[in-house]
Specification:
The complex is a heterodimer of chains A (117) and B (115). With 117 residues, chain A is an all-beta fold. In chain A, 0% of the residues lie in helices and 50% in strands. Chain A has strands spanning 5-7, 10-13, 19-24, 31-37, 43-50, 53-57, 64-68, 74-78, 87-94, 107-108, 112-116. In chain A, strands 2, 4, 5, 6, 9, 10 and 11 form a seven-stranded mixed sheet that branches. A four-stranded antiparallel sheet of chain A has the order 1-3-8-7, with no helix packed on it. Chain A starts with a strand and ends with a strand. Classes of the chains: A mainly beta (117), B mainly beta (115).
C-alpha cells in the first residue's frame, strides 16, 4: 500500500458524459501527478500540481481539467467523454521538497479504471 | 517529442539467471531518470531516481547505472526470482521549458522469471 488513495476504483459511463476522479496523496506529500494508461499507449503524464498550483502539464486534452484543493487532495475532471478516453487513470504523489522538482520518487495510487461505452 | 526507448520489449529468464535491460533517452537537457517496477494488477512502484552521470544505485538484487552523456541507463537483476516478474519502466525528466517536471515513460520491459 503506497498510501495514495484513489476513488472510485471502477467507473462505467456513456459517451458525452462528465466524470470526476479523486485522489488523496500520502500524508505530507505536496505534489500530485495524474497519468493515463490506455491499451495502446504506455503511461502518459497528464498534469502535476504542487501545493495547490499547477506545476507541469503533459498531453492533457482540453476536455480534461484538474485541481488540487487546500487539503492537498486532487480531482481530475473528464468531460464530453469519448470511447477513446477509456483507460486506467493513476494518481501519484511525492514530497518534492525542492519546490516541485521532479527528483523525488513518486508513489502511485491503485488507479481508477474508466470505461466509456 | 521526447523519445524514451526500452529494450528488450520482453524477456524470459530462468530462476537464478541474472539479467539486464536498457533505457535510452535524449542526452541533452537531462534532469533525472526514474525506474519503476509494475506488477500485474498493482500500481507502479519506485525503484530508483538517478540524477548524476555515473550514478549507480542498488536495492537488494536490483541495481542501475546511468550514463547521461550517451543517454542510457541499465537496470540489472542478479539471481532473478519468480517474484521479480513485472514490467520495468523508466521515465525521463528533462530540464526547463514546457517539459520541466514532466516524466516521459518508456514502453517498459516485461520480465518473466520461470521457476
Amino acid at each position: 500500500d503506497s498510501g495514495v488513495t484513489q476513488t472510485p476504483k471502477h467507473l462505467i459511463t456513456a459517451t458525452g458524459q462528465r466524470v470526476t476522479l479523486r485522489c488523496s496523496p500520502r500524508s505530507g506529500d505536496l505534489s500530485v501527478y495524474w497519468y493515463q494508461q490506455s491499451l495502446d499507449q504506455g503511461l502518459q503524464f497528464l498534469i502535476q500540481y504542487y501545493n495547490g498550483e499547477e506545476r507541469a502539464k503533459g498531453n492533457i486534452l482540453e476536455r480534461f481539467s484538474a485541481q488540487q484543493f487546500p487539503d492537498l487532495h486532487s480531482e481530475l475532471n473528464l468531460s464530453s467523454l469519448e470511447l477513446g478516453d477509456s483507460a486506467l487513470y493513476f494518481c501519484a504523489s511525492s514530497v518534492d521538497p525542492l519546490a516541485g522538482g521532479p527528483v523525488d520518487e513518486q508513489f502511485f495510487g491503485p488507479g481508477t479504471r474508466l470505461t466509456v461505452l | 517529442i521526447l523519445n524514451v526507448e526500452q529494450s528488450p520489449q520482453s524477456l524470459h529468464v530462468q530462476e537464478g539467471d541474472s539479467t539486464n535491460f536498457t533505457c535510452s533517452f535524449p542526452s541533452s537537457n537531462f534532469y533525472a531518470l526514474h525506474w519503476y517496477r509494475w506488477e500485474t494488477a498493482k500500481s507502479p512502484e519506485a525503484l530508483f531516481v538517478m540524477t548524476l552521470n555515473g550514478d549507480e544505485k542498488k536495492k537488494g538484487r536490483i541495481s542501475a547505472t546511468l550514463n547521461t552523456k550517451e543517454g542510457y541507463s541499465y537496470l540489472y537483476i542478479k539471481g532473478s526470482q519468480p517474484e521479480d516478474s513485472a514490467t520495468y519502466l523508466c521515465a525521463f525528466v528533462s530540464t526547463g521549458g514546457t517539459s520541466y517536471g514532466k516524466l516521459t515513460f518508456g514502453q517498459g520491459t516485461i520480465l518473466t522469471v520461470h521457476p
